[in-house]
Amino acid sequence: MFTKILVPVDPNEMDFAKSAVAAATNLAMQSGGHVVLVGVLPVMNGYVSEYLPADFEVGFEKETENRIRAIGVAAGLKEGRFSVKLRTGSVYHEVIDEAKESGIDLIVVTSHRPQMSTYLLGSNAAKIVRHATCSVLVLRN
């Protein structure tokens, strides 16, 4: 069974991850496992950040963490049975790195229906599947 399950949550499309969080919750409840919800924040360019308030990034991170935590609680995850981590950078790199660093057994990720652009370039889900060292469950939305 899977005891450490990671679910990437896009801070810009949190509703898109709800089915993955629900599936991870179900699997974690069956195995007594732990769910790690990972939000990957974009890198803030220097020229953009100079126009934002000094505490913008701290407030944005706190708000994002609270919103991701609320998705976990709404899915039925209990405190202590899940954690929220925020990372900054490229989605698939950060998800792969977090999975390795945290000893993840399973990544549960949602994927859009394939389009021509994803056949040529590859989506984040496809890149995660190709490069993950653990099992990956892809849910179509």
Q: Summary?
A:
Helices cover 45% and strands 23% of the residues. The chain is α/β, with parallel strands linked by helices and 141 residues long. Strands 3-2-1-4-5 form a five-stranded parallel β-sheet, sandwiched between helices.
Q: What does the model show?
A:
By secondary structure, the protein is of the alpha/beta class. 45% of the residues lie in helices and 23% in strands. The protein has 6 helices and 5 strands. The protein has a 5-stranded parallel beta sheet with strand order 3-2-1-4-5, with helices on both faces. Strand 1, helix 1 (18-31) and strand 2 (34-41) form a beta-alpha-beta unit. The longest helix has 19 residues, at 56-74. The model is unreliable at 116-121 (pLDDT under 50).
Question: What is the secondary structure topology, with strand pairs?
Answer:
Layout: E1 4-9, H1 18-31, E2 34-41, H2 46-49, H3 56-74, E3 82-88, H4 91-102, E4 106-111, H5 116-121, H6 124-131, E5 135-140
Parallel strand pairs: 1-2, 1-4, 2-3, 4-5
